[in-house]
UniProtKB/TrEMBL annotation:
NCBIfam families: TAT_signal_seq (TIGR01409)
PROSITE patterns: HIPIP (PS51373), TAT (PS51318)
Descriptive protein name: High-potential iron-sulfur protein
Domain High potential iron-sulfur proteins family profile: 34-101
Keyword 4Fe-4S part of the UniProt annotation: yes
Source species, domain of life: Bacteria
This protein's UniProt keywords: 4Fe-4S, Electron transport, Iron, Iron-sulfur, Metal-binding, Signal, Transport
Protein function: Specific class of high-redox-potential 4Fe-4S ferredoxins. Functions in anaerobic electron transport in most purple and in some other photosynthetic bacteria and in at least one genus (Paracoccus) of halophilic, denitrifying bacteria.
Lineage of producing organism: Bacteria, Pseudomonadati, Pseudomonadota, Gammaproteobacteria, Vibrionales
Amino acid sequence: MKKDSSRRTFLKFSLAGVIGITLGGKTLIRPAQAADLPHLAEDDPQAKALQYVENSPHEDQKCDGCALLQGEEGADWRPCQLFPGKVVSANGWCSAWVKRP
């Protein structure tokens, strides 16, 4: 009998939590947007390891043309698969650059 009570209480609080978070269809938790993320600094340890620079020394190799770059086409700063939680310069470059197909 005690087991049913615990399950019922759990379901009640779970439902209340879902309702509280969504508040009538407006979600309080939203995915991070590129504008919300910090810019990757050249002195970041991972950036240093991959020789990341904000301005590519290679005219034909820029982050904007890399297969690892994500986000909205044409934006100056975009997320990269190699640097989660940060955005990189579309004009940047790193040693992991791979030509977009």
